[in-house]
């Protein structure tokens, strides 16, 4: 019987419904925990990275699991033609690992950013969203391991349940993905029409993308949950038939090695050195420096000229599991570091009194488990600190909207949210470690976040 590995990490929680879907397709589900002997993977015919919240989505969804050795082995197995399906959190892991879209250029990766539900310029919501949606194949879907029993006329009604499911990427890369039909499934209405507005598009994903497949056609990153409904059974049946008739599928060559992340000292992609195709120069121009110096408003030190810019740095007074998980992951990778994490708010307001009211509101932080600290308390001279911000800054926009609407703090002009990550090491020169640490992308995805050196 065909044996499908159900890959699970701490926090995975969809193994039961995935196992039932695999059984309905006439295959045998084999549970595989992240810390098992990797040789067991060699005996399996395919793999499903199940949904859930691996490592509680610490740092961001999927990144900690993507750095686990089991993913390196699954990548090697996928290069032999074995199918790999990532569902929800599994999809996030595949994206963070670079297995999707699999265009054989290390920098041509994508991001699954925080959900964005916006109507007429108003933020209706962000973060976790749970609902039933419709999706269908795009009109020109390429031959692959997962859709041989589906056509663009088949509407699949299935649930979504995620907080970071919005596919984002540079416009040039989006163009390449759509031209190569890698945007395999799209959100649609009940008639199959592609409608960009919420709730048809539940998370603001570019081009209504619900799932992206790699160029080879055997690795699929899907945010909705086909395993939770029999409407999704054709996907698993196709996976079965693909394995049985694998020699009839045209599997293109793909690289086995883990993508080599560019050091932060190399700021831009070089199209010529990467050997990219048409549209690559446009993609290179869309890239930003990996790490930039940071300034408050127009200056790092607040002066009378920019006294309307106020910083608010917030420290968690209970155990910070996000920082601990990043620290443990980096130590497993060979970096002897201590990691701290802080919330960072930048508030544009002419009234210091209004800023204090905003801080007391509970919108920016919860006094029961957090407290504001001075920048001087960060100890910037004893380590390296980086400020990471979401490029579309939904947390900042929503905080501003809440403070204006519910607290009548109309004098606030702008709020920008971010996270400060601080790194120290007692064993090695932290300056010599940081390029390699940042190159793991554990702090940010370059397409969803901006990263600044905070000093």
TrEMBL record:
The keyword Protein transport does not apply. It comes from the Bacteria. InterPro entries: Class_I_gatase-like (IPR029062), PRibForGlyAmidine_synth_PurQ (IPR010075). Keywords: ATP-binding, Cytoplasm, Glutamine amidotransferase, Hydrolase, Ligase, Nucleotide-binding, Purine biosynthesis. PROSITE patterns: GATASE_TYPE_1. SUPFAM superfamilies: Class I glutamine amidotransferase-like. Gene3D superfamilies: 3.40.50.880. Its EC number is 6.3.5.3. One of its GO terms (biological process) is 'de novo' IMP biosynthetic process. One of its GO terms (molecular function) is ATP binding. NCBIfam families: FGAM_synth_I (TIGR01737). This is Phosphoribosylformylglycinamidine synthase I (FGAM synthase I).
